[in-house]
Amino acid sequence: MRIVFLGPPGAGKGTQAALLSERFSTPSIATGDILRRHVAQGTPLGLQVGPIMDRGELVSDGLTIELISDRLAEPDARLGFILDGYPRTVNQAIALEELLAEIDAKLDRVIKFAVRTAQIVERLAGRRVCPACKTVYHFVTHPPIVEGVCDNDGAALLLREDDREEAIVRRLEVYGADTRPLYEFYLSRGLLIEIDAIGTTSEVTARLDAALEQ
Asked: Count of CB atoms within 10 A of residue 76's CB?
């Protein structure tokens, strides 16, 4: 199973990717998570991309392609993967095709998660993250037992810089401009299926399962 999840930040791709990964023992790969680890660890790459991500802008194609190439070469991804939010540009999509062609493989499906801008801002602005265990909470859909404190380890929850409202709006603007052509790209290849990403996690999961069965 080789699948791409497309959709704006806050569309719920990460949640569904994690659930699908667990069910099918297939790695879920998100470039944003990889980059945030570098930022948290203060690596040279992290120092380079941290300010870019804080502004809600996209990291360059070249760097992102290199990260994905290295990740897909790891043993657990050789038989399948779920790409969460990658590719984000047509150049990245072409590079991914070339990477897969080298191992005589191709994508099985591309899922577009459809959600409106106002709902995205509400979702992301309400998120808080535990700096220790990385559990993600939300004021409405998944609040901690004690406000502002992680249920697992008692750490104070943090608001990610790229979840601040001004950064969210900027991320959505950049996403729309750079990523919209991807839908046409994958539609022309007969791979794209759109699902409604609004609803409970189980409702969206049911729609995803139906799309993957097509």
From this structure: 13
